Amino acid sequence: MSLSSNHQDKDKSDLNKFGYAQELLRSMGGFSNFAISFSIISILTGAVSLYGHGLTYGGSGMMGFGWPIVAFFVMCVAAVMAELASAIPTAGALYHWAAILKNKRWGWYTAWINLIGQIGIVAGIDYSVALFADPLIASVFGYESSNTTVLVCFSVILLTHGILNHIGIRIVAKLNDFSAWYHIAVVAVLVLSLAFFTKGSLNPVSYLFQVGETFSDKPYMFAFLIGLLQAQWTFTGYDASAHTIEETINPRVRAPWGIFTSVAYSFVIGFIMLAFVTLSIKDASAAAGSSNAFIYVISEALGGTFGSVILWLVTAAMWFCGLASITSFSRMMYAFSRDKGMPLSSQWAQISKKYRTPAKAIWLAIILSFLLAFIDYLIKMVNPDATYTTIAFLTAVSVVGLYVAYGIPIYLKLRAKAEGRFQDKHLGPWNLGKYSNAISIVALIWIIFICVIMVIPPNQMAGYAVAGMLILLVIMDLSYYNKHFPGPQAALNKSMEEILRREKELE
């Protein structure tokens, strides 16, 4: 028997002891698992689409200080999540962790809050693609880009992602592998172009760390905190490595490394890219006041034609990011529906016999993501003088939803350890050892802090949206799911102690 076959049998056995059959095709290697999270983080999406947001509120110092500060704390969050993924390797990920560490109700709320964040991140990513692609297409075909044409472009992009994810995980996995290398290549092209072909000279390196300048009406320190949305939204979605864990070979090791290294590499590569973009700024005030600061800076630095080529390359990278985000979102919904946690769960838990993918869950992810952006479009039509931007609204919703969902199992793990229900023997091969509790506490403090920052003005619309969805969840819980949701198979009569005992029996 080959080494691969041995791994497949061990992985299947690991999944069986949590109460699940191996339904999804397990074919992803370590790089593929890393690539899906790296592609969703996508420094060429988050850091680029919100470049104007960061520049407007924090000036050039946002890139020099804001990016590293956020990256450090996010790596703490990612490390704790990686530890949990190694201990509990199921596609339900966050909500399975919560259910096992506490109970099904905690798991149910975690799942729905994660779904809110997933809707926001898919909508935010694909809307970012549309914001870049539509003006570029408009310049070719001679029409004027508007909110309506951007929405149409957004719809087409969502459709392409739905079709490819439906067709099969092997194609998407290969595209995600390509996406990781493509991101690195495009960043290299962008950096080298700015380093050697920028019109005029680059700003001195000290400009990158210049603080005190804001193009908003807020005091600088407060404005700087608001500007952190740029980096914080970029570092989201790395739980994708956990959501695709049932499709990954040797998942207890490879998925945790996928979670952690996707954040670490994104930090380093993203910082280099942001440094050169910022050092090439000719007029920060004009860039901050433009409709798209990144497009403005690149066009001014590299000229019209060359700049357009670079922007098309960046837009393609964003498209790959959206493709990976649909994969992650649909797997999470599939796992939750498999446990009867959603309305019409039997539909969303179905696996396509031909393609071995959760086809109906994929298309539900597409529809929900479109609706979030479409509702915002209608609000903007009724109130065209609204001061918030669509992209800031969508991204803030995703940050709050995802990070609250990240924080719940981290908090429950600390409680379970304090009560003796989760011990060192329950950890997987990837763990933080004696530093686990300290890193978990730091991660929790950051999550609380950043979630507050993301919903204060001018992002209050995101706070209203999240609050409204949470109220709806409480109503759903009290009226139906509290009595009818059986809970995930991973948690039904299976404490960590029971799972450990079963694991020893299977060995």
Automatic annotation (TrEMBL):
Keywords: Membrane, Transmembrane, Transmembrane helix, Transport. It is a multi-pass membrane protein. The chain crosses the membrane at residues 34-53, 65-85, 106-129, 149-168, 180-200, 220-238, 259-281, 293-326, 361-379, 391-414, 435-456, 462-481. The keyword Transport applies. InterPro entries: AA/rel_permease1 (IPR002293). The keyword Lipid metabolism does not apply. It comes from the Bacteria. It is found in: Membrane. This is Amino acid permease. It comes from Paenibacillus chondroitinus.
